C-alpha cells in the first residue's frame, strides 16, 4: 500500500468493491406478501399489548441481571489484565477473547455449561474482558504521569499503581464502564435469540406465536430500558445493582449438565474427528472438506454482506449527520432525526435483522439493511455531535447549503475514519447473522453445533476470529495512511465508536 | 553535598545551560533567579540527578498531585517509599491514626487543616501548591528542591511558608520569582541569564543593578 491515500480514493475503492459484489448477493424477497407482514408488524408496534407484562418484566430483570453481572465480571478481569497489556501473552489473550462474538461464546458455552446462568454471564464477560483490558490500558497510558514520576523509583509498583495511576484514570474508567453496560444490555437481550431467558427470547417467542402486540410491548420496554441507563445506573448504586443482579441470577433454573461436560468438551469433543477416531491419515481430507465446505463459502458470504453493508452504512451516515443538526434540518427536523437515530442505535444489528427477516424472508437483504441502519445511525450520531460543536462564522448559511459547503467537507475525514472503525464490527456482525439462516460464517458454525460436531465448530470459530483480527489490522493501517487516526482519537468518540 | 563540574545541561541536542560549575554545601539556602525560560527548571533537574541516593523532597512547578485523592492522602504520598506495598494499601484504604495525625500536623503548618479531607481537584491553585509543599515537608530529607513553590500564594503567606521550609530542611534550593522573598529566605543567590550563570554570590551581594541585568529584556 502507498504511504498516503486520499480519503476519496478509499471511499471510491470500497464503493467499487461493493458494486462488484452486488451481483453475488442474494437479495431475493421471499414469496409471501412482505407488505402485509410489515403492516401487521407496524400495527402491533403501534398498539403494544401489555397483557403478558409479568413475563416481560421478568425477562427485563434477567436481561439487566446478565448485563450487570457480565460487565462487572468482564470489567474486573479486564482491569486485572490492563496493567500487563504490554506483555505479549496478555495482549494476545485479550485479542483472542474479544475476537469471538458474544453469541458465538454463548453457543460454545452452552455445550459445556448448558442453558444456564453462567453461560449468559460468561458469554458477555469473556469478550468484554478482552475489550476492557485494551481500553483500560489505553486510559492508564493516557493518564497524567507526573504524580507517578514524583514518587521516584524506590516506591514498589503496587503502591505506585494504586496511589498515583488508578485515581487519575478512575473517572474515565467509570464513564467507559457505564458505556459498556449499555453495550452489555444489548448483548444480553440478543443472547435471548439463542435460548437464554432474556428479552430476545420473548421477542422470538411472540413472533413465532404471531403476537405482534406483545412483541411491540417488548420493543417499547427495551428502548425505554436502553434509553434510561444513565438515569438508573449511578456510581453510588453499583453495589446495590450487583446484589440485585446476583439475586436475580440465582433464580434462573437450568437443566443440569452431566458431570465432566467441560472435560469431555476439551479432551474429546473439540479434537478433530479423524484424530479422535484414530485415523490421522484422513485429517487432510477432513481439513480440505472444512475449508471448501464451510470456511471459504462462509467467508465469501460474510464479506459480500459486510462490504455492501459498509457502503450502505456510509450512505446512511452521510445523509444522517445532517438530520440532527438544527441549523440544517430545523429544530423540529433535528428532534425527529435524533429520535430516529436513537431508536436505530438502541436495536442491535442482530435484532433489526431478525425483525426484517420476518418481513422479507431469509436472504442477505435483511442482514444488509440491519447492519447499514444500525451502524449508519451510530456514525451519524457521532458526526452530528461533532457538527453541532463546529464553530461557524456568524453569517454561515443554513439548510442544505450549510451541510454541503461546511459540515460535509469539514467532517469528511472523521466520516471516513468512523466508517473504517465500524468495518471490523460490521464483519463480526455479518458473521453472526448466519445464525438467522443467512449463509455467512455463523450459519456454518450454528450448523456444526447443531450436529454436535464441536471440532468443526471450533475450527470455524478460529477462522472467524482470524478474519476479524485481519480486518482490524487492515482498517488501522488504512486509517494511519489517511492520517485520520489522530482526527478522532483525540475525542472520546473513537472509544465509543470502536465497539458495540 | 552536591557538585556540578562544567556540564552542559538541556534536553536533546541543544543545551539550555552550558558549562555549569557549582557546588552546594549542607546548610546553604539557594535562591535561583532568572526570567522564565532561563533554565531554572533544567538546573533543578540536573541538581536532582546529582543528589543521587540522598533523600530529596521535590516541589515541582506543576505540583504533580493526584487530583482525585484528598489533600491528606496526597501528603501521605510523601513517604510511600518508606513502607511496603501492603502497608501502603492499608493506608490508602484508611490511614492509621498516627499517619493521619502526622499529615494533619503538616497540613496545619501550611494552613490547610480545614481542607484535609477534600479532594485536591476541589482546591484553589494556591491551596494545591500548599498541599504540594506539605507533601514535601512530610517527606522530609536532607534537601528540598522547589520549582517556584510559592508562585501562587499571596506575599504574606509566602513569607510564612518560606519560614516553614527553612525550619523543615537544613538545605534548600528554590527557584523563586520574587526577589524580595529571595532576599528574605536565601543565604546565596544563583542568577541565570542567556544560558549561563550570571551571578553566584551570597545573597547580601545581590544589588539592584544585578537584578536589573537578570530581568532586563
Give the topology, please:
The complex is a heterodimer of chains A (500) and B (217).
Chain A: H1 7-21, H2 34-46, H3 53-81, H4 88-99, H5 102-113, H6 117-142, H7 146-150, H8 157-191, H9 199-208, H10 212-227, H11 229-232, H12 238-250, H13 261-269, H14 273-276, H15 283-323, H16 326-346, H17 349-360, H18 364-389, H19 399-433, H20 441-450, H21 454-482, H22 485-489, H23 493-497
Chain B: E1 2-9, E2 17-24, E3 29-33, H1 40-50, E4 56-59, H2 71-76, H3 85-93, H4 97-109, H5 125-139, E5 143-147, H6 155-168, E6 171-175, H7 179-185, E7 188-193, E8 196-202, H8 208-215
Parallel strand pairs in B: 3-6, 3-7, 4-5, 5-6
Antiparallel strand pairs in B: 1-2, 7-8
Helix pairs in contact in B: 4-5
Task: Give a verbal description of the structure.
The complex is a heterodimer of chains A (500) and B (217). Chain A is built from 23 helices and no strands. Chain A is mainly α. Chain A has helices at 7-21, 34-46, 53-81, 88-99, 102-113, 117-142, 146-150, 157-191, 199-208, 212-227, 229-232, 238-250, 261-269, 273-276, 283-323, 326-346, 349-360, 364-389, 399-433, 441-450, 454-482, 485-489, 493-497. In chain A, α6 crosses α8. In chain A, 77% of the residues lie in helices and 0% in strands. Chain A has 2 domains: 1-31 and 286-500, MetI-like (MetI-like fold); 34-263, MetI-like (MetI-like fold), CATH 1.10.3720.10. Chain B has helices at 40-50, 71-76, 85-93, 97-109, 125-139, 155-168, 179-185, 208-215; strands at residues 2-9, 17-24, 29-33, 56-59, 143-147, 171-175, 188-193, 196-202. Chain B has a 6-stranded mixed sheet with strand order 4-5-6-3-7-8, sandwiched between helices. The mean pLDDT of chain B is 91. Chain A binds chain B through residues 146-147, 149-152, 154-160, 162-164, 167-168, 170-171, and chain B through 58, 60, 62, 64-69, 73, 77, 80-81, 83-85, 88-89, 92.
Amino acid at each position: 500500500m502507498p504511504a498516503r491515500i486520499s480519503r476519496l480514493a478509499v471511499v471510491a475503492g470500497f464503493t467499487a468493491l461493493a458494486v462488484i459484489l452486488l451481483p453475488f448477493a442474494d437479495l431475493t424477497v421471499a414469496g409471501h406478501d412482505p407488505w402485509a407482514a410489515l403492516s401487521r408488524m407496524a400495527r402491533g408496534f403501534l398498539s403494544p399489548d401489555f397483557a403478558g407484562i409479568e413475563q416481560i418484566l421478568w425477562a427485563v430483570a434477567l436481561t439487566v441481571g446478565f448485563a450487570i453481572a457480565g460487565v462487572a465480571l468482564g470489567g474486573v478481569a479486564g482491569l486485572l489484565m490492563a496493567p500487563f497489556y504490554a506483555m505479549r501473552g496478555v495482549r494476545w489473550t485479550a485479542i483472542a477473547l474479544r475476537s469471538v462474538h458474544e453469541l458465538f461464546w454463548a453457543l460454545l458455552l452452552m455445550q459445556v455449561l448448558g442453558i444456564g446462568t453462567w453461560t449468559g454471564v460468561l458469554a458477555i464477560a469473556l469478550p468484554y474482558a478482552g475489550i476492557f483490558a485494551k481500553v483500560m490500558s489505553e486510559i492508564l497510558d493516557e493518564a497524567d504521569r507526573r504524580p507517578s514520576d514524583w514518587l521516584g523509583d524506590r516506591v514498589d509498583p503496587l503502591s505506585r499503581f494504586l496511589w498515583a495511576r488508578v485515581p487519575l484514570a478512575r473517572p474515565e474508567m467509570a464513564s467507559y464502564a457505564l458505556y459498556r453496560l449499555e453495550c452489555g444490555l444489548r448483548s444480553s437481550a440478543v443472547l435471548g435469540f439463542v435460548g437464554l431467558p432474556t428479552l430476545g427470547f420473548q421477542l422470538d417467542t411472540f413472533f413465532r406465536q404471531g403476537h405482534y402486540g406483545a412483541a411491540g410491548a417488548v420493543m417499547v420496554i427495551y428502548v425505554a430500558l436502553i434509553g434510561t441507563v444513565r438515569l438508573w445506573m449511578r456510581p453510588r448504586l453499583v453495589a446495590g445493582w450487583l446484589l440485585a443482579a446476583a439475586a436475580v441470577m440465582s433464580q434462573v433454573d437450568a437443566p443440569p449438565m452431566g458431570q465432566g461436560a467441560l472435560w469431555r468438551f476439551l479432551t474429546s469433543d473439540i479434537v478433530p474427528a479423524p484424530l479422535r477416531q484414530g485415523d490421522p491419515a484422513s485429517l487432510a481430507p477432513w481439513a480440505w472438506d472444512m475449508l471448501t465446505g464451510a470456511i471459504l463459502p462462509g467467508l465469501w458470504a460474510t464479506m459480500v454482506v459486510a462490504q455492501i453493508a459498509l457502503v450502505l452504512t456510509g450512505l446512511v451516515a452521510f445523509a444522517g449527520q445532517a438530520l440532527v443538526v438544527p441549523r440544517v434540518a430545523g429544530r423540529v427536523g433535528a428532534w425527529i432525526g435524533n429520535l430516529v437515530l436513537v431508536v436505530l442505535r438502541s436495536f442491535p444489528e442482530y435484532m433489526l435483522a431478525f425483525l426484517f427477516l420476518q418481513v422479507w424472508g431469509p436472504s442477505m437483504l435483511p442482514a444488509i439493511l440491519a447492519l447499514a441502519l444500525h451502524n449508519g445511525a451510530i456514525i451519524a450520531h457521532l458526526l452530528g455531535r461533532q457538527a453541532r460543536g463546529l464553530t461557524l462564522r456568524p453569517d454561515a448559511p443554513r439548510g442544505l447549503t450549510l451541510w454541503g459547503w461546511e459540515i460535509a467537507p469539514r467532517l469528511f475525514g472523521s466520516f471516513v475514519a468512523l466508517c473504517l472503525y465500524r468495518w471490523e464490527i460490521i464483519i463480526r456482525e455479518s458473521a453472526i447473522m448466519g445464525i438467522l439462516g443467512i449463509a455467512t460464517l455463523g450459519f456454518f458454525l450454528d450448523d456444526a453445533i447443531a450436529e454436535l460436531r464441536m471440532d468443526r465448530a471450533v475450527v470455524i470459530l478460529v477462522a472467524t476470529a482470524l478474519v476479524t483480527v485481519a480486518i482490524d489490522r487492515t482498517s488501522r493501517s488504512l486509517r494511519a495512511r489517511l492520517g485520520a487516526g489522530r482526527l478522532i482519537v483525540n475525542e472520546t468518540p473513537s472509544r465509543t465508536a470502536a465497539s458495540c | 553535598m552536591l557538585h556540578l563540574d562544567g556540564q552542559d545541561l538541556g534536553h536533546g541536542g541543544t543545551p539550555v545551560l552550558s558549562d555549569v560549575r557549582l557546588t552546594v554545601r549542607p546548610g546553604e539556602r539557594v535562591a535561583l533567579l532568572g526570567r522564565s525560560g532561563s533554565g531554572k527548571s533544567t538546573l533543578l533537574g540536573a541538581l536532582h540527578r546529582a543528589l543521587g541516593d540522598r533523600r530529596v523532597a521535590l516541589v515541582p512547578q506543576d505540583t504533580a498531585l493526584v487530583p482525585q485523592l484528598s489533600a491528606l492522602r496526597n501528603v501521605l504520598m510523601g513517604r510511600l517509599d518508606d513502607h511496603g506495598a501492603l502497608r501502603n494499601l492499608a493506608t490508602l484504604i484508611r490511614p492509621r491514626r498516627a499517619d493521619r495525625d502526622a499529615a494533619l500536623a503538616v497540613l496545619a503548618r501550611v494552613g490547610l487543616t480545614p481542607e484535609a479531607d477534600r479532594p485536591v481537584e476541589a482546591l484553589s491553585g494556591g491551596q494545591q501548591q500548599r498541599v504540594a509543599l506539605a507533601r514535601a515537608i512530610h517527606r522530609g530529607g536532607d534537601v528540598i528542591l522547589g520549582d517556584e513553590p510559592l508562585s501562587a500564594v499571596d506575599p504574606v503567606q509566602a513569607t510564612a511558608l518560606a519560614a516553614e521550609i527553612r525550619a523543615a530542611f537544613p538545605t534548600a534550593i528554590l527557584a523563586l520569582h520574587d526577589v524580595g522573598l529571595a532576599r528574605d529566605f536565601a543565604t546565596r543567590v544563583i542568577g541565570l541569564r542567556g544560558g549561563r550563570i550570571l551571578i553566584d554570590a551570597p545573597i547580601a551581594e545581590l544589588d539592584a543593578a544585578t537584578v536589573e541585568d537578570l530581568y532586563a529584556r
